[in-house]
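Model the whole thing, not chain by chain.
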Amino acid sequence: MHGDYEALRREARAMEAQLRQWRRDFHTYAEPGWCEVRTASRVAGELTRLGYEVLTGRDVCLAEARMGLPPAEVLEAAYGRALEQGADPQFAAAARGGFTGVIGVLRCGPGPVTALRFDMDALGVRESEAPDHRPAAEGFRSVNEGVMHACGHDGHTAMGLAAARLLMRRRDRLRGTVKLIFQPAEEGVRGAAAIVAAGHLDDADYVLATHMGDRGTGNGQVGLTTGTTLATAKLDIAFTGRAVHAAMAPEQGANALLAAAAAVLALHGLPRHSGGDTRVNVGTLRAGTGRNVVCDRAVLEAEVRGATTAVCDDLEQAARRIVQGAAEMEGCTCDVVRAGAAGALFSDAPLLALCRETAEAMGLCVPPTGTTDSASEDFAAMADRVRSRGGQALYFRTLTACSGPFHSAAFDFDESALPDGAALLAALALRLSHSLVAE
Amino acid sequence: MHGDYEALRREARAMEAQLRQWRRDFHTYAEPGWCEVRTASRVAGELTRLGYEVLTGRDVCLAEARMGLPPAEVLEAAYGRALEQGADPQFAAAARGGFTGVIGVLRCGPGPVTALRFDMDALGVRESEAPDHRPAAEGFRSVNEGVMHACGHDGHTAMGLAAARLLMRRRDRLRGTVKLIFQPAEEGVRGAAAIVAAGHLDDADYVLATHMGDRGTGNGQVGLTTGTTLATAKLDIAFTGRAVHAAMAPEQGANALLAAAAAVLALHGLPRHSGGDTRVNVGTLRAGTGRNVVCDRAVLEAEVRGATTAVCDDLEQAARRIVQGAAEMEGCTCDVVRAGAAGALFSDAPLLALCRETAEAMGLCVPPTGTTDSASEDFAAMADRVRSRGGQALYFRTLTACSGPFHSAAFDFDESALPDGAALLAALALRLSHSLVAE
Amino acid sequence: MHGDYEALRREARAMEAQLRQWRRDFHTYAEPGWCEVRTASRVAGELTRLGYEVLTGRDVCLAEARMGLPPAEVLEAAYGRALEQGADPQFAAAARGGFTGVIGVLRCGPGPVTALRFDMDALGVRESEAPDHRPAAEGFRSVNEGVMHACGHDGHTAMGLAAARLLMRRRDRLRGTVKLIFQPAEEGVRGAAAIVAAGHLDDADYVLATHMGDRGTGNGQVGLTTGTTLATAKLDIAFTGRAVHAAMAPEQGANALLAAAAAVLALHGLPRHSGGDTRVNVGTLRAGTGRNVVCDRAVLEAEVRGATTAVCDDLEQAARRIVQGAAEMEGCTCDVVRAGAAGALFSDAPLLALCRETAEAMGLCVPPTGTTDSASEDFAAMADRVRSRGGQALYFRTLTACSGPFHSAAFDFDESALPDGAALLAALALRLSHSLVAE
Amino acid sequence: MHGDYEALRREARAMEAQLRQWRRDFHTYAEPGWCEVRTASRVAGELTRLGYEVLTGRDVCLAEARMGLPPAEVLEAAYGRALEQGADPQFAAAARGGFTGVIGVLRCGPGPVTALRFDMDALGVRESEAPDHRPAAEGFRSVNEGVMHACGHDGHTAMGLAAARLLMRRRDRLRGTVKLIFQPAEEGVRGAAAIVAAGHLDDADYVLATHMGDRGTGNGQVGLTTGTTLATAKLDIAFTGRAVHAAMAPEQGANALLAAAAAVLALHGLPRHSGGDTRVNVGTLRAGTGRNVVCDRAVLEAEVRGATTAVCDDLEQAARRIVQGAAEMEGCTCDVVRAGAAGALFSDAPLLALCRETAEAMGLCVPPTGTTDSASEDFAAMADRVRSRGGQALYFRTLTACSGPFHSAAFDFDESALPDGAALLAALALRLSHSLVAE
């Protein structure tokens, strides 16, 4: 198999210019969650050209399981913009209205089902114009003001297309099925659940994903972690009261801002948990229309996190009780919507071992395995589903030199890591396709 | 009638030593609300001796309408102490267990029913031992430590007995019925409602009461007020949660202190009211058993006040909603008990005029009528009931020189005003007994 | 003098079409506070044409005393829009940058100084497009979306121009000086103070203003009130903390939203006041940038009101203490800016009498004088200044049939009242110009 | 050495009746923290009899470093009761006033200094009278109502006396110095710091302590833990405001209850920490004197805990900032007193290994070493001091069958474990006394 590894890595490196071009294209036309119309169209086109069986639109995401969907007018504007920016009209039509997931399927007879996940969405960050910011200097700064690939998903999508090529070239040697899942709306942990709900992971024996990571001053190319991320739930909370003039007859109002303020304090006062680490945050609050009007509407964006999904669920349940109580205090009503959710994500030990061995065999440097990874990850929903069916999951970092923190306006990464990441994913898929026989 | 006035005032003045003795006796053996066993026994004995038809015990107060009742062991201790301090065992037995009201009835054939109210309870104040505090200097400081007549109810009760004598002497000239109501638990506005609930005001055409007042540097002997006091409701609020070790598994607790803290803030944030002035106060909070235990019990004493009974009711209703919501927020339960309540008290204009005219005819000085009186008064419950039946109510101040503010450890008053107050009440009762004929 | 009244009223009625045209022009091009560039230009042009000595720009408002000024870019946009909408470039230049006050002065030798105040600003309300809304039906709905004359200031400005004509025609008979003050930014009680601070009221013996009022189902044309409005202070409160990722190292943040929530609850819990009625409201809160970021910025719009300026000052002082304490709690800083302020407004009894007498003499109907007027009014700053110099102030309502509540999208008024209002103001100015002689 | 172990264990078992007698004596006359006058007297007498150099009173604890000291009258009452209950007057005199620590020193020439810590205080728990509660059934239930050895310190003290005997018998074979430290006020983590501050640990190379533990259904006799307890700080927080009548002029008050409520919510909202686990609790709040009085005094008992002392310090510092800010909000002042504090406690690995080896050599069963121990322990102050000087610390559990949870009224333990615990401590001290030579 060693020769395979070398060939994979060599072929991937030969695609480096193409990977760079893809990544910079996605970077230039950055699209936020559920709005990835142009990106999805490009992905779907490429997979189709390669010969994959391609699922798009409503075939990928269960409509009602999509969380944190923007308003219809925002989705429609995204569709219009994608067309203007060169999206293939046929694929764009499928993606219209928040159906921006794409799955490429490669069926190679009986054998294990291996799914690879790539996320495609950008963030609501205004990209730096500084001359030392490479995208600005080299002309691929986001043209969509206020939207930026500041988390590396542009690289993930590019790696997904490269892996698609590498695997298609090896279709004769593959057994079972490979699914390449291009997911919308990972930010805010909103999109994976809709793909899971549509059943696409129900038959998977393995599910893999990678995320760009900063190798810091080290020389790591692959980062592995034995610990778990925190499970999280994102809650959109809206208090509705009754507006009246604040001086005339204030007793006739129902003050949504007072309810919200009580809720903010109580939410931050959610108890610590014997089950492990927790986090709580109310990040935003928008309330009221005028200084002299009793506030009738207050909208909060909150999140809870926990060391396990059970801990996180406890917090979410308590949070829901708090906001209902706060509403009652002030004679208001309260609506709570889950705008996102992810379980605690961890990798199964056999896949971690396989990943380490494969990476080392490919000549990729793997630093000591870390114990924690503090970010939450939407991929957990897929990992949980696969694991619940007896399968396994792997999440690793494709390490490279990064400039600026993740999610910052100055974020960028060294693209030379993209071929290696794609090659490693392809190698893992190849090994797993033989797993049922091999074990 | 002028000769009558002079005779009344002269006779009352002749009783001054007796009034002083009564007042000092009540002062010495001060008893708090619902514990006035000795006081009530003395009153009942006196009324009986005078020939009144006397109601005591359960005949006076409707058991379940008594608000803010102390625990049974406190009532029992009060009973024991009263016996030790010389209460007539027969009357004490009737008063045992928080039935300390007494009513003396004088029936004189057909005619109007006039009720006079006298309150008997003392306050939870430790009386001054200073040598310039007359009760201390002259040996009638309260022997019941921590209980003190610091609001003049000892004087009211004494005036009631004197009025009883004056009226009995004039029974031949009276028409209709006179009821002398000696009420328990006026402090905290707790006792009047139980007498009203028992129906004793249902047939009253008039109800009158007086309260000691500081004449300040003026020479007033009778104070009249056209405005209203604030209506009030007293609420005892108890949050019950679940105690757990604060470090082990705090998420398994239900934190009654957090609920209480949220409620305290929200109660003080009750909106102002277009219907008039309001007040809110949470005066006390007792919560928790140990530093490292999640608090499972928090008890608050709160009150709301409003310019009208309707305003006060609005506040009470909102307060009840707040505390239930606060309990829900923290997974606690909440019990609310009305520990007292009084409507807004005001005097009817015809009785105010009658009082002014009568007082002036008796040679009593009446300063200009005031517009406001900020205290709340339990007597409002009686006034409201009588008024709801088409009757009228009067509340006036018997003014005298006072030392120290009302409710303070240094409070005392000049007893020389007692005869005049008693005489004026008797004169008013006499005039009203002829009212149906006169009008 | 009776003939004068008739002539005034007749002449004013002859201007009705002009009044309507003016009012509808101002209505169409509604401009919010400090942005009244076009309105002010039109007023300045008209006063100049009439022969008034005209003050504009920095001569009217003391720059640093202007409260609640919008950001510079908003002011600049208002200037640009005014030019597009036909403002006279010369006057517009003076008004640029938030200097939109205009004063017309008519000097007629020795004698009293009488100031008339007219406010010119519109509200941030989106005007109704309903077919039964007359401005929509008759083509003068605001073309400036989201800005609307929903409080009648368009009518006030029109009346001011009419009064200017009436008085100029009578300049020979006037003694002393008349000042017609066209004030910016009355809404939010922001603009009067800057005119007062510039000294324009320092020599005034009288200051008068009128405001449209709904005559309801009655037939009143002039509304007089003996009571006071509530004094008020408007506070813009900004908490600044430190943003950090809410899950990574939340302890390194400083949570401005927690500070704001604590402040909201405590502000609403400001105690009631023995000095009279009070109001408190936090009407709006904008906080935070993202769900998973510890909030570093929270901005509140709050207001306090009190029966007297002293009561209001007590509340403002306590509010300032609360927000500083709340900031300290969370390691934040807090900036508080007075975005507006007005004292309690009342009319002096002699002017009320003069107004009643004059109105009746002119055949205008005056219903019984009311006792309260619950709105706050910026005019109080002018009244207070004049009164502090020994002068007097008058504020009356020009009553007419109104559709929709004040400040609502459906507000409109019957323009036929405009001539009478203008005539009454002119008549009062005429009478007062002789007052020093007459008395 | 094996023979030594057997001898130690045999000798200790021979003392079982004595151990039981001591323990039951301490149990019967349970004394709370800083009040252990009788217990300390008994200990001092015993150590003196054995030939130890004995430090008592002010020689043991630095006066001003004692935390959470009860009021002087409580200390005085404890002294009086101890005398009544048979305390040796001489030793009791030294312990009077909260100086209840005792140290026995055994100097055996040059060599390491090994300190053993035993805590002596009981809890404020009312002991069960149930017939199945052994102390009740066998007549050694606490005679001091409301004070109970519910945490096993009676057993610790008894083991200390047994270890003293065992070591004195082996004085010839000891090198260096052994210090037996009998500590007051471990509950509330209040007493260790005063002994540390007095310098008694400054020369120690080793410090050891044991605590009773429930062996559950296992057969463990020694419990070892590699993790740390949480560091903790106990804070007594008092808000002082200004009392006024709640209805008359509430604006003249300063509401300590509002400050306390704001503080309670904000304290529970202290952020989670990237440095590790945290806990926060406000366990009790006592506020106010009357329903209708603005509260002028609110007293809280709070605690914070953190995975490390640094984390705990961060929390304490933030808590102090919160309460000062809350006080400022309401115009109150705030006093904060540290009523107790302990660092995170852990055992040094070499001592853990030594303990395991020794216990096994003695035939004591040692279950797998645990990773966490969630209680806080005052012993941490001693461990930190010794470690800061280059020394090592060990804390292990003496496991036995327990009835009822620790700190509950039903707590009791099987006394048959006492000899083994004492023998193990003595064995460790013996081995460590040779350590400098042996290594």
